[in-house]
Amino acid sequence: MSQAFSFTATDAAALWAEVADAAEALVAGERDAIANMANVAALIWQAIPDLNWAGFYRFDGRELVLGPFQGRAACIRIPLDKGVCGAAARLRTTQRVADVDAFPGHIACDSASRSELVVPVVADSRLVGVLDLDSPLPARFSAADQRGAETLVARIAEALASNP
Ligand code: SME
User: Model pTM greater than 0.90?
Assistant: First the structure.
């Protein structure tokens, strides 16, 4: 089945709402978390401008492990006490970083990254992983981007956690 989605909104809040609607439609009825993460990473990559990396790290009970993503090959394992992703996972709080070079412990997987938005994925009080978005532009992510990404994750968290 072809899965062609088009995104037309021009402001961030409306664009994220379109992506969340598409994501919810795509994951509906599919219980494989890897497949769902792969499709959601692809939707975000297609819809959200000025990204150089978009995807997931999964929590394996000890640390974060690279999951489905779009962009350049990336760091495979991230301890919870390292980097922007580790902070989001450890604190279970979104990290919106305007200048990654100013973030203590930032892990430079892709030297092009200038700003970053990392949203923890939590389902049934369990840490599933994080959604990580990187941009080559400084201060790329607005409060509206943060709210949009958080709402998307909240709407589909169960589908990113469950497995057959
Ligand atoms: N920069 C991230 C690491 C992941 S990559 O950007 C894909 C961090 O500091 O956690």
Answer: yes
